[in-house]
């Protein structure tokens, strides 16, 4: 949520109150008209003032001051082009008149010609370096329009040097440091403002805001209280206090503070604010009550209805949201915002043509509304109207809105470049590069923007389309599946998957190519001696038609959908020939022979330690997504006590004790299904072979049998509706999200009922030989139970945290961690914890390794 910035950042048109008029150079009549014009201007009689100044100019064409004043009046009337002409003439007649340069710069700002505005402000500063207004306004342009923070900081530093006892330079520089996330420097500047002006209460709001960003909530609240001592009638500070209390976990104080805010304001906006506050707390009935009160107070205002419609959309009550929007339009058919909100909802639900229609209505109502030109592009692309989408991009580029000019939003520019440049030229290779850049940059954007967006799904859908064009059908299917995992209401993506399935079937029917066989472990080429009577054979058979069967030395081996197979095989001492035969579903056969050397005599007393090694001299990175569902929107689903606490404690252990940097640990507490799945897909797609990912889930879980008698496992996020499987997160959803990841190792830890359904049926007790190979990818799940309920106060999570905290080893495998508390859980609870490979996502028998700091 964004809050009101108390720093006054408004344009001030400064006009000198005294002009030196030389009687010898100007006629008395011209002076009379000039003075008359000023009198009219003081009374805001703009047209009469313009007539008077025009008469003065007629009598004396060299009257620079009259041009400046007349320019100002045209400026006041928002006739900026005429004002600029008069300002320029005034400067031609008197180049050293600082005030006119300032006014001309202000007119350029109004015209959004910021480069010319900068030029004029710099000239004003050159002429009069002691006028601080020029520094402030120029700094605002650098900060807000050009996003040139370095120039803004240099400017304000010069201002501080010239005016060391003035608070404004420190105040504005502190704000720029805040935008740059240099929070300590921002606090130091705000501290200096307080030293110079202890009674300037608004600076405490700025410093409190920075303290919040640094998660120093007690200090933030202290500053907000300081404001209220100086400015008790600034009720908005109670709202800020409420959010600070909420972020620090002091919910009761947060509610008390926001109630104070509402009781003091007693207006529509206050009730809407509290409604959204209750929304964040998942107290939906109280939120609806406040929305209704806001509407009762101002029934003719559309804001309350719009807010309630957005509430319905964000809680998945799409029909109610549509009804709300339709009712507004019955009485306010020209309300632009309603069409924008409804268009967004129609896009989310896959009604692309209706979304296009609403956005076209917006542009009919207001052709200058630039963001609509951008919003309409995605539904046009989803319906195959690429040429029309390209035309809207051109229209947008003629009058761009600032939000796409910001660096943080540049990810979407790559998507637009694909539509406007790459697709028309059929340059699909470059399109794929641009889309990968968009996906990479979106990761940074999403960290600062928590609102659930649809842009990422747009990018995934477009990437699937481009992969299709490149003939990379399997990759396209996987990308499309990821997009549907986030939002299943995408008819175009579903249709593309059906078409791809038909294409794949056609190719498979004509397939004459035998399968490709790969032995993953053990690697015979390394001359590996197997120190065991049994060894685990891990391999993969690949074929476009699909694998029908795999045998090893004539023995059938169970094979997963992705062709992975594992078999425990006895070895004799000496040479062992290994014949692997794979047959695809069209009857094409391939065989491959390997020789392994067994040695059952040699024994090692200590197993080798797994030492993770990075490739390409890059540092190993450890990432984590910690998901906790504690408070449930559906009253028929009971809330839980411990998930958020457990996830927070695990986060602290990972950061304090192991190689997890805080910036790589993402917490998703009480988030909805779409937010969780987007975070997993995004992270999964971002990782490389030097990355390791831990996903933790704590919350309700459920298991249901399918028509074949197999159990499907589900996680139940906070937004779920009881009995509606589409609102749950299935094991298949997780598999699709992780399938394309290039991460070296992925470990899922689930403290939820029926999480054992996520595992595959192949053997999970990997041999020592396989466990040693950090270089071999792994996709494992550690679950608190198998096909059984798990209590809220789980012994599993207790022993997991305990063993991680007390571990003394530098390198600890997930398997060894699990083995360390497996029997303790069996002896102290009724659950059977599981540790196994996740089915069909590319586990090759490796091990996730925790590296102790």
Description of the molecule:
It is a single chain. The chain is an alpha/beta fold and 853 residues long. Helices cover 52% and strands 14% of the residues. The protein contains 34 helices and 19 strands. The strands form five sheets. Strands 10-9-11-15-16-18 form a six-stranded mixed sheet, with helices on both faces. Helix 32 (768-771) links the parallel strand 15 (745-751) and strand 16. Helix 18 (318-331) runs antiparallel to helix 19 (336-348). The longest helix is centred in the middle third of the chain and has 21 residues, at 428-448. It is elongated and about 120 Å long. It starts with 27 loop residues before the first helix and ends with a strand. Mean pLDDT is 85; it is low at 1-25, 524-531, 602-606 and 760-772.
Structural class: alpha/beta
Largest sheet: 6 strands, mixed
Kindly provide the radius of gyration, computed on alpha-carbon positions and rounded to a whole number of angstroms.
33 Å
Q: Helical element count?
A: 34
- Share of residues in helices: 40-55%
The stretches of 5 or more residues where confidence is low (pLDDT under 50) are 1-25, 524-531, 602-606, 760-772
Shape: elongated
Could you provide a short overview of the structure?
The chain contains 34 helices and 19 strands. The chain has 853 residues and is α/β, with parallel strands linked by helices.
Question: Which characteristics define this entry?
Answer:
5-stranded mixed beta sheet; elongated; disordered N terminus; 853 residues
